[in-house]
């Protein structure tokens, strides 16, 4: 099995898989592809996955708060993946 191919969830005794259920709402149930499936198949890290999740659900769940959470995760990703770029951006204009 390729690392880009996640395992298919196994049905429970009722024939349901974890992808068939959602705990705490239904904001992912009517999507063509759920964020977790997209993130797993594309091997996204935690911050990248959170961005996908929050941007996907903002219209159906927490509105502007979810957009702020997505932005925060992008800021975290930028600082962790590209620290030198962040240092240059935050330096006074005469020091770049």
List the helices and strands and how they pair.
Blueprint: H1 35-41, H2 46-57, H3 64-81, H4 83-90
Provide a compact summary of the structure.
With 96 residues, this protein is an all-alpha fold. 47% of the residues lie in helices and 0% in strands. The radius of gyration is 18 Å and the shape is elongated.
Q: What is the overall number of helices?
A: 4
Order of helices and strands: HHHH
Mean pLDDT comes to: 84
β-sheet strand percentage = under 5%
The class by helix and strand makeup works out as: mainly alpha
Structure notes:
- The chain has helices spanning 35-41, 46-57, 64-81, 83-90.
- With 96 residues, the protein is mainly alpha-helical.
- It has a domain at 29-95.
- The radius of gyration is 18 Å and the shape is elongated.
């Amino acid at each position: 099995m390729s690392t880009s191919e996640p395992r298919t969830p196994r049905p429970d005794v009722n024939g349901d898989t974890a992808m068939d259920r959602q705990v705490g709402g239904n904001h992912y149930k009517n999507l063509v592809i759920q964020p977790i499936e997209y993130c797993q198949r594309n091997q996204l890290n935690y911050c990248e996955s959170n961005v996908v999740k929050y941007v996907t659900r903002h219209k159906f769940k927490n509105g502007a708060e979810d957009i702020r959470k997505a932005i925060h995760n992008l800021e975290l990703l930028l600082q962790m993946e590209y620290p030198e770029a962040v240092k240059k951006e935050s330096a006074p204009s005469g020091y770049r």
